[in-house]
Amino acid sequence: MGEPATLDEVRRWPALVSLTQAARALNISRTTAFTLAAQSRFPVTVVRALGQQRVRTADLIRYLEADGGESA
Question: Can you give the pTM of this predicted structure?
Answer without folding.
Answer: 0.87
